[in-house]
Amino acid sequence: MTESTASDDRSVRRSTLESLLGVFAEVRPGEGANAVLMFANIFLILTAYYVLKVVREGLLIGGVQLFGLGGDEIKAYLPAVMTLLLFGVIALYSKLASAVSRIQLLNMTTIFVMVTLILFWIWGSSLGVGTAIGLSFYIYLGIVNVFLIAQFWSFANDIYSDSEGKRLFAIIAIGQSLGAVAGPKIAGYGSQHIFLLLVLSAAIFGVCLVIYNVVDRRDRSREQNNNDDETSVSQQPLKEGGGFQLVFHTRYLLLIACMILVTNVVNTTGEYILANAAKTYAEEQLPSLNDDQRAQVRAGLTDLQPTGEGTNLATAAAEALAAAEDKALRGARSKLIGAFYGEFFFWVNLMGVLIQMFLVSRIFKYMGVRAALFVLPVIAFGGYAAIAFLGGMAVLRIAKTAENSVDYSLQNTIKQSLFLPTSREAKYKAKAAIDTFFVRFGDSASAVIIFFGLHTLGFGPKAFALVNVGLISIWIVLNVGIAREHKKLVPDNGGVDPG
Description:
This protein has two domains: 19-238, Growth Hormone, Chain: A, CATH 1.20.1250; 241-296 and 318-499, MFS general substrate transporter like domains (Growth Hormone, Chain: A, Up-down Bundle), CATH 1.20.1250. It has 19 helices and two strands. The protein is globular and about 90 Å long. Residues 1-11 and 494-499 have low confidence and may be disordered. 40% of the residues are buried. The protein has a two-stranded antiparallel ribbon with strand order 1-2. It has helices spanning 3-11, 16-21, 32-63, 71-74, 78-97, 102-127, 131-159, 162-189, 196-227, 243-249, 251-285, 291-300, 313-358, 360-366, 369-372, 375-389, 393-417, 424-455, 461-489; strands at residues 65-66, 69-70. The protein is mostly helical and 499 residues long. Helices cover 79% and strands 1% of the residues.
């Protein structure tokens, strides 16, 4: 949008919708309808994903047994499988993006997801829960979900100019935050019909498909009116070249990729620190069963019988009682951990939504994208330093709540905005590679750090926090490089719209 156009827009009165949206960010005349449509689209995508995430956990943890390992342990190793598969998936996606137009790419990938979800529904309804479908669906969703979110933001980067995106992404991303809240609630109502949730999600993606086409048509009409050209740029396929090629041959994109990788390692390692603390907290709060709980366990042992010839009944009873008490104790601790995480997620989600609604657009306006890059790493650095040197559950909860809420709101919007000044090829191909492969590679790298830290170096939570402090120092250095490259692409104040 040119400066003269922006000036003309201000002379036109905003609609009621645009005035309402102005509470959250600066919305100019004519921008409201598309902003709401994009808000609705990412809301639906995240809602469907979180519905599918509930299905994924149920199928994996409840139905997978492989080589004597349960689904909860196998889950830790699957990101490595996804990372390997993404090499081929990204190459195929890059070829498709070079062969078809933008809207054809969106339609084909969304329809593919809808069809595969229906196929999983048929598989599950016919054969039920099992190892094959549990593993397949976990890997499938782990790849598909990051692609769908990355592709949405690629489309958003394509239809908005740099100045428009810096103002409107804050509103659109509210939909992402709210979708993450709505999805689990919807899944909870249908948890007794787990495979029907696949059909529900496919239907939701069908609505997303319609919204994509409406927004694309509106954008092409605007582009043609501005350019007086019958063939808009958005209808043309992307240039040849793969996503990895773009990343490794462009300093700006490579720095973003490395930043995403390090960010993910820090966050995933932090999640382990939190999980370990939650487990320790539960063990300290409930070291053993009380007398009432023991009495309930004994009352439940009504079917005790000798287990074989010569078995001492008293010994068998003692063993059965000990096993039952251990099971009851683990169940009681699980409830404490569940309550802990329930409260933790509530505060993270609440703070994340509030930050997204009322702070992100203002941070972008008054600080700019380049300065905003350093907000999360500074918060995370202080948080993990406090965990390492002070410790304690209260410090850990405050640090992780601050980190995660800012990560899900401000940092997410920053990551999307960094692609605004890049080429269309970078917005689709390189972004897909960065938001999928480098994210999953970060998960795998964190798993390696945790494994060797625990089993070779004997690390505890404070040692892992110090590791994160070191990684965040690297993260800050990478952000300095990103800010410098961004300034070359957008030689203004980094985010404040001069108009």
